[in-house]
């Protein structure tokens, strides 16, 4: 990613977080910025539930706007997003169709998805 594009993305993501909108509106604006700036098929933010046993989708954007119900509330440790939270480690791949963590490789093939990136931040103050 070129430096100029990276700076534009950072500004586009930070601007809603620094505004006066509520959390949900800010998260939606952030994921829209990521999807638009990176031409991403999907961008989403999951929040760990108060009980700590699931992650719940709070905002999403991109050409794939409505993930399946099973991907909206994910048990920690299940699917790629739940595993990222459980392991507290980022997950990157350039071959999602052959990634053993992928839960629906056929879907990824139909959407021509190649490079998902997942990162867990443990608190609102942790830098991703």
List the helices and strands and how they pair.
Layout: H1 3-18, H2 23-38, E1 43-48, E2 54-61, E3 73-75, H3 79-87, E4 91-92, H4 105-111, E5 117-118
Antiparallel strand pairs: 1-2, 2-3, 4-5
Helix pairs in contact: 1-2
Fold and architecture overview:
The chain has 128 residues and is of the alpha+beta class. It has a single domain (3-118), classed as GAF domain (Beta-Lactamase), CATH 3.30.450.40. Helix content is 38%, strand content 16%. It is built from four helices and five strands. The chain has helices spanning 3-18, 23-38, 79-87, 105-111, and strands at 43-48, 54-61, 73-75, 91-92, 117-118. The strands form two sheets. Strands 1-2-3 form a three-stranded antiparallel β-sheet. A two-stranded antiparallel sheet has the order 4-5. A hairpin with a 5-residue loop joins strand 1 and strand 2 (54-61). Helix 1 (3-18) runs antiparallel to helix 2 (23-38).
Number of domains: 1
Structural class: alpha+beta
CATH-derived topology: Beta-Lactamase
The largest β sheet comes out as:
3 strands, antiparallel
What is the share of helical residues? 25-40%
Helix count equals 4
| Low-confidence runs | 123-128
Order of SSEs: HHEEEHEHE
Q: How much of the sequence is in beta strands?
A: 15-25%
Mean of the pLDDT scores?
77
At the fourth CATH level, what is the homologous superfamily? GAF domain
- The tally of beta strands, per DSSP, is 5
Give the CA-CA distance, first to last residue.
17 Å
Global outline: globular
> Radius of gyration, rounded?
15 Å
> Taking strands numbered 1, 2, ... along the chain, how are they ordered across the largest sheet?
1-2-3
CATH architecture: 2-Layer Sandwich
